[in-house]
């Protein structure tokens, strides 16, 4: 079944108050974010999506695929489930070397040209993480960032999942802007639960959660895109200094002034 559209119909929040957003439609190629304070119901919302809720969860929401309730087989047959769900707690339950694991997954998925699929997956993962993955290493030897990067690459390329849910993965050593740029090239629906301004502002729109309910959606409009560009620069600045500190360098005032003036700020 080709997924064209994912629709979320509102239910209720924690106090049984109605979702103020009653209907959200996501098309293939959309990247959206879910934002809100801890405890506001972000994970619960993506759980509803992962479960293809049909008024049978505490939120009373429903999720429609191509305008209809999801077929039973999505839940009963993992190979037909169009959703890949990646969380901070997702881990590979395998001690196989990376390349063997990918090979097995690719053959289960009946992918042709297994060698090139694996190469593409590793290449994708390595663009997401700063620390290149050695394919002969065991899966359990990977760092948090490498694991997250490989999970995303595996879901996108080998799993070829049309809908990918990511719950707060940003602190795990992933190159976020790169990830979004790469992900946008694949026609998929990406839903990020995130506190990261960079991801939130690069999304097509964001859903704001409060007290368990969807309270509004905000579109990325022109002015926000300008703000997003500036935030990106400042974030790069922080990443730059983080790297210098990691590399054991001593920081000097002139380094900051130089960087800031290169970005068009005064630095004083
Ligand atoms: N719509 C809702 N109806 C009932 N309980 C909810 C609802 N949304 C969230 N909760 C509950 O509130 C708690 C926090 O929600 P959670 O989704 O984990 O928040 P977040 O991921 O934003 O930190 C959980 O125990 C969850 O079951
Ligand atoms: Mg959560």
Q: Characteristics of this structure?
A:
10 strands, 3 domains, 9 helices, alpha/beta, 4-stranded antiparallel β-sheet, 268 residues, single chain, 6-stranded mixed β-sheet, Rossmann fold, binds magnesium ion, 18% strand, binds adenosine-5'-diphosphate
Describe this entry's structure for a reader.
- There is one protein chain.
- Helix content is 39%, strand content 18%.
- It starts with a strand and ends in a 6-residue tail after the last helix.
- By secondary structure, it is an alpha/beta fold.
- The strands form two sheets. The chain has a six-stranded mixed beta sheet, with helices on both faces. It has a four-stranded antiparallel beta sheet with strand order 2-1-4-5, with no helix packed on it.
- The chain is built from nine helices and ten strands.
- It has three domains: 141 residues, P-loop containing nucleotide triphosphate hydrolases (Rossmann fold, 3-Layer(aba) Sandwich); 68 residues, no CATH class; 48 residues.
- The mean pLDDT is 90.
- Strand 9 and strand 10 form a beta hairpin.
- Bound molecules: adenosine-5'-diphosphate and magnesium ion.
- The site of magnesium ion has 3 residues, from helix 1.
- Adenosine-5'-diphosphate (ADP) binds next to helix 1.
In DSSP terms, counting alpha (H) and pi (I) runs of 4 or more, how many helices? Answer: 9
Residue-averaged pLDDT: 90
Q: For the record, give the distance between the C-alpha atoms at the N and C termini, rounded to a whole number.
A: 58 Å
**Which superfamily, in CATH terms, is the homologous superfamily of the largest domain?**
P-loop containing nucleotide triphosphate hydrolases
Share of helical residues = 25-40%
- Strand runs, count: 10
Rg computed from alpha carbons, rounded to a whole number of angstroms: 20 Å
């Amino acid at each position: 079944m080709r997924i064209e559209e994912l629709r979320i119909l509102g239910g209720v929040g924690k106090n049984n108050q109605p979702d103020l957003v009653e209907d959200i439609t996501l098309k293939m190629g959309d990247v959206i974010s879910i934002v809100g304070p801890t405890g506001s119901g972000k994970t619960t919302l993506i759980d509803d999506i992962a479960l293809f809720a049909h008024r049978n969860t505490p939120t009373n929401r429903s999720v429609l695929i191509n305008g209809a309730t999801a077929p039973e087989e999505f839940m009963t047959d993992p190979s037909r489930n169009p959703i890949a769900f990646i969380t901070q707690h997702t881990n590979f339950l395998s001690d196989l070397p990376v390349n063997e694991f990918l090979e097995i997954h690719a053959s289960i998925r009946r992918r042709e040209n297994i060698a090139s699929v694996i190469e593409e997956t590793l290449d994708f993962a390595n663009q997401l993480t700063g620390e290149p993955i050695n394919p002969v290493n065991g899966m359990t030897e990977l760092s948090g960032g490498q694991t997250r990067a490989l999970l995303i690459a595996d879901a996108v390329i080998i799993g070829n999942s049309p809908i990918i849910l990511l719950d707060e993965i940003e602190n795990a050593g992933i190159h976020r802007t790169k990830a979004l740029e790469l992900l946008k090239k694949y026609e998929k629906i990406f839903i990020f639960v995130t506190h990261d301004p960079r991801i939130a502002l690069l999304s097509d729109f964001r859903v704001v959660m409060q007290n368990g309910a969807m309270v509004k959606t905000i579109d990325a409009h022109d002015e926000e895109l300008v703000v997003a560009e500036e935030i990106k620069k400042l974030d790069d600045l922080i990443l730059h200094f983080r790297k210098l500190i990691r590399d054991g360098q001593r920081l000097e005032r002139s380094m900051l002034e130089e960087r800031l003036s290169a970005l068009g700020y005064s630095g004083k």
